[in-house]
Write a structure and sequence with these properties.
Length: 240
């Protein structure tokens, strides 16, 4: 490890401690609430046939309220300034999570949801660390960022699949409903990304952006570690 890498880790650790406390306060209730609520569960399990508009709504709702997906997206676009680059990364993420969402449900590929959600938390930690230049300082190189976004997209989509697999889905209209849900996820992602970009661009115009970048990404890592801890706690208590 280089001296620059050690200094970076020391600075991140110093900033991450209060950031972790803030993330704990802001995300504690959200972590407990994440998933399919009772009203949506009742609709999904009680409906039959093709329900395109309701499933689009449910997909968009899940993405807009999916703090783990939004944290990762915020990390992905944090240092992206050109719409061409943002579009490329978001497309890779969409391809990844659409693939495993559809295949996971249609082929009934199952995995422990706590472990999958913990891997989603890991993706948030990864992106914050990558934004801080941690890999370059510690390992001397930066992993392929586009490949990482695609791979983590697979895990994010599988996380969505595990939420649906917990429900009793009617086979009548399953494929069009599932495709509608996925379209809703993409719409929700676009809406959330638009808000994130607007806020990010206003922030980038201020002098504080560069000064606060390390603190922000340390907070991103803290939020990711919180997600990992929450999911692993659930795994050992209920899902092992």
């Amino acid at each position: 490890m280089t001296m620059a890498g050690a200094a970076l880790l020391e600075r991140v650790a110093r900033l991450a401690t209060p950031a972790f406390g803030l993330a704990l306060v802001l995300m504690g209730e959200a972590a407990l609430a994440h998933g399919v609520d009772e009203e949506d569960r009742s609709f999904i399990e009680g409906s039959a046939g093709t329900n395109i508009i309701p499933y689009i709504y449910l997909g968009a709702k899940h993405m807009v309220t999916g703090y783990d997906h939004l944290l990762f997206l915020a990390g992905v676009i944090f240092f992206l300034y050109r719409m061409k680059d943002i579009g490329a990364y978001v497309t890779l993420f969409a391809i990844g999570h659409s693939t495993t969402l559809l295949m996971g449900v249609l082929l009934d590929v199952r995995a422990n949801p706590y472990i999958i959600d913990a891997s989603i938390g890991l993706s948030v930690v990864y992106k914050g660390f990558d934004n801080l230049g941690g890999f370059k300082h510690l390992l001397g190189f930066t992993p392929n960022q586009k490949a990482a976004v695609l791979i983590f997209g697979f895990f994010h989509g599988f996380g969505l699949a595990t939420k649906l697999q917990e429900l009793t889905l009617a086979q009548d209209g399953l494929i069009p409903n599932l495709i509608s849900f996925n379209i809703g996820v993409e719409i929700g992602q676009f809406m959330a990304l638009a808000v994130i970009l607007i806020l990010m661009n206003f922030w980038r115009l201020t002098d504080s952006f560069r000064r606060s970048a390390i603190t922000a990404n340390a907070a991103l890592m803290a939020g990711g570690f919180l997600l990992i801890g929450y999911q692993l706690s659930g795994y050992f208590q209920q899902g092992a």
